Amino acid sequence: MQEKVGRAFVERFAEEATLFASPGRINLIGEHTDYNGGYVFPGAVDKGVVAAIRPNGTQQICVVALDLEEEATFGLQEEEKPQASWAHYIFGVAREIQKRGHTIGGFDAVFSGNVPLGAGMSSSAALESTFAYALNDLFGCGIDRFELARIGQSTEHNYCGVKCGIMDQFASVFGKQGCLMRLDCRSMEFEYYPFNPQGYKLVLLDSRVKHQLTGSPYNDRRLSCERVAQALGQEFLRGATMEQLDAIRDQISEEDYKRARYIIGEERRVLAVCEALERGDYETVGRCMYETHWGMSKDYEVSCEELDFLAEVAEAAGVTGSRIMGGGFGGCTINLVKEELYEDFIARAKEEFNARYGHEPMVYDVVISDGSRRL
Ligand code: GLA
Hints:
By secondary structure, this protein is an alpha+beta fold.
């Protein structure tokens, strides 16, 4: 990908450019907890975005999306978003950097990516982080990594209509080979957890049901949580207990009650998983993953039939843990599988899913990798 992008830049702009990359992410557990001030447990993956970028001495930005064979041009100071939706991410990043008082110039860029789109692996965060990291580096803005992640998050909020939390951009920017990261989204403190479960594999099964958070009920979920937090007199749902939730049950809708019940359970599960990992207790990790799946399906209602089916196939095949990953409404399950069951599980999932839905899920082995970098 690196060579392809570099070559395409030279062909289009007749100059050499600097290459940058940022990854997509997985999340072991802690879903929809980030915007509730809770914990998440992601890691960066070996799939991402690579961009060749070169300042051009003008006030214009010219970007080629190699995979789509499309090009977008817009001014640094322009208020109007460009037409192509992929260009909103780059437009947003450039605007957000400038909003924070930094000076950048125009640039030419070519980029390509291999994070499966709509799979819940944060292809958009990979794109935002690549450009945020690169512009900071090329124009010497001196922005720290947390702020780079926030620039990506604000891009989603202000230019893409998704009121996301910080997990995806954080994971993309801070990723470290072989390590998951437990992030406290309230204090922004985090720890790297070397993750090498002996005898197990982590594998994603992509239902290929398209997941699009823009215009999805994602923002509604966030609003539910905010209403409950307010009824509890708290800034975030983080730290709330089931007793507290039950005490205000008649002040909130049944739907909001269920949403909050999931979040409270999920917060407990992230901590349980971290403790279990320290003991090498993968059975507990897996049990929590299934609990998350069914919480996301029944209480948070962000799963879909195909993903419930994949979690059921996993359970029937004796897989240690399986759950929907990411924002939901389609995408992947993440599966923790004993090595000796791996082949059988994949074959079974492909066959049974195909028999029911007419296509096989895609299979991605998880390789935990580094975050944003200059190549
Ligand atoms: C999306 C958002 C994240 C997070 C997850 C769910 O990926 O971008 O901020 O809320 O959904 O955990």
